[in-house]
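are you around this afternoon, could really use another pair of eyes. what follows is a protein written twice so to speak, once as letters and once as structure tokens for the fold. i want to understand how the tokens follow from the sequence so walk me through it. anything you notice is useful, everything is just below.
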Amino acid sequence: MLLFLFIGIGKGSFKTIKKILIEYIMLGDLIEKEAIDISQIVAADQNHTEELRDKLNAAQRLGNEFKSKADITFNTKEGPKTVSTTVWSVTEKYIQLKNGIHIPLSSLVDIDF
């Protein structure tokens, strides 16, 4: 099914393809980082912090050194959401994104590059 997405797509459509693939593959709805409502974020069913620790550090390095984005899936009251953004820092309890957005590590479901 995904193979057919690439037929007849022009050069400028890469971001559209990426967005479609993220929505198809990821666990949650794709949202813009500006749409993150921190009051809606809740803890995930299981705390994945320790198993994601290496990915968190890699995402921070990608963001700071290479300005690359990571796809971060976190839990909300409405279900999982995924945001594709640059990770600025990782603290003991939060992942920090641009514009002062902090997502609790306890709400993380997955991180992908």
